Amino acid sequence: MTNQTRSYFTEEHEIFRKSVRSFVEKELYPHQQEWEKSRSVPKEIFKKLGEQGFLGITLPEKYGGSGCDYWYKVAFAEEMTHCRMNGFTMDVMVHTDMTTPVINRLGTEAQKEEVLIPAIKGEKICALGITEPGGGSDVAHLRTTARKDGDDYIINGAKTFITNGSRADYILLAVRTGPPVTAETFQSAHTGVSFIIFPTHNEKGEKTPGFSVGRKLEKMGNHSSDTAELSFQDCRIPTKYLLGEENKGFYYVMNNFQGERLIASIMACAGMKLMLEDSIKYGRERQAFGKPIITFQVWRHRLAQLFTELEAAQELTYRACDLFNRDIPCVKEISMAKLLTSELVNKVAAECVQLHGGYGYIEEYDICRVYRDVRLLTIGAGTSEIMREIIAKETGL
Ligand SMILES: Cc1cc2nc3c(=O)[nH]c(=O)nc-3n(C[C@H](O)[C@H](O)[C@H](O)COP(=O)(O)OP(=O)(O)OC[C@H]3O[C@@H](n4cnc5c(N)ncnc54)[C@H](O)[C@@H]3O)c2cc1C
Questions:
Q1: Same domain, 52 and 92
Q2: Which of 68, 278, 321, 378: disulfide with 342, CB 3.0–4.6 Å?
């Protein structure tokens, strides 16, 4: 059995881990069935997470964060998987790992005051808007434009598959501020991308003119997650919302992917551990031919194989966490961890459904839902094909 208490975690991390587990068991897991069925989670849950200090674990105390090391974040992500709602945990991680850290890194004091402080409290929710109907992998050639007009940007375009999209207060939006993509600019298109913190409404709650949330996307899995299509028509946004430098957005996006891919890998490992534990429990209880199915050699060997592969994936992921925590460049290690864990979690889910027999196909069994949910992992946050491309480059191929 994979033991989460490894040398990376101190006693303090473990005390913190227990507090997350207790929150998850009390506030999240009991609502799992209801929120999955209704395909929505109340916005107030973000406030509850904020009150516990879970939304600013590694962010500076000055803005309401806890200023802790990355291992606290790892413990938080691992424990969050126990709510058994991959969709909702993804919503939370978009907020904590894909948006607020980059605002902290690149934002002005005014941006941090306006966005970071309420986001850490859970009073405001953040989304990340990169993918467009025309493409997600090819970030350099995105087409949503932000044209400067005096002290404003005029934003036009569309985004799709945006997690937290329909309830976000701020969307960290990747836009084209450079020349449009043409045959001449194709090769240099990545130098014309910027990040803008897009407020979806004003202080009175009135929607930003020209901004609209499109149809609700019916997904294969992750039903408790809010996934939306967004449209921007002549949206006027003050230039004070530009994050970092103009036209450096492509590099910011690539950098930001690291935290996103790492947290996805951490959660994939924790998810695999849960699936295997559940399956062993089921296999001990379920009898066939007069004995528990877990005692058939074929299952003992299959599970032994999966535990071995999980152990390797977990150690690679923790190694990437260690480098990330110490601010040591680790694009290769994170891409490898994302590739390995997202492929493996699909294999583990398929085997665990098989072990459950017909019950693995029945909705009330967690494994049925998890099998659907984990399908996203080789696609979201950069596909497996893109991970192999990055690893090939990083290894000099
Ligand atoms: C539920 C869900 C939530 C999401 N949340 C967000 C979010 O919050 N914010 C956000 O911005 N995006 C989000 N996404 C989008 C996600 O990141 C993209 O789906 C993903 O990046 C892939 O982009 P795409 O779907 O446009 O596929 P495409 O880029 O069209 O790729 C299609 C296929 O072509 C392959 N391919 C593309 N380029 C290459 C290449 N160079 N070499 C080899 N193969 C290649 C891909 O690997 C893939 O198999 C979400 C998606 C889903 C489904």
A1: yes
A2: 378
Question: Are residues 53 and 117 both part of a single domain?
Answer: yes
**What are the C-alpha distances in Å from 95 to residues 120, 285, 341, 349, 365?**
9, 40, 22, 26, 29
Supply the range of the domain harboring residue 225.
126-247
Q: Answer yes or no: is the C-beta of 129 below 6 A from any ligand 1 atom.
A: yes
286 and 305 belong to one structural domain: yes
Catalytic pick from 79, 114, 246, 260? Answer: 260
Residues 226 and 307 in one domain: no
181-217, pLDDT tens digit by residue? 999 999 999 999 999 999 999 999 999 999 999 987 8
Last residue of a domain, one of 215, 247, 279: 247
Ligand 1 near 87 CB (within 6 A): no
Closest CA to 94 of 68, 61, 131: 131
Amino acid at 369: R
Ligand 1 touching residue 162 (CB < 6 A): yes
pTM of the predicted model over 0.90: yes
If you take atom 31 of ligand 1, which residue's CA is the nearest one? 137
pLDDT tens digits for range 334-372: 999 999 999 999 999 999 999 999 999 999 899 999 999
**Ligand 1 geometric centre to CA of 200 (Å):** 24
d(CA 41, CA 39): 7
Catalytic residue check, 394: no
Contact criterion met (CB below 8 Å) for 90 and 109: no
Based on the domain organization, do 294 and 375 belong to the same domain?
Answer: yes
Residues 313 and 268 in one domain: yes
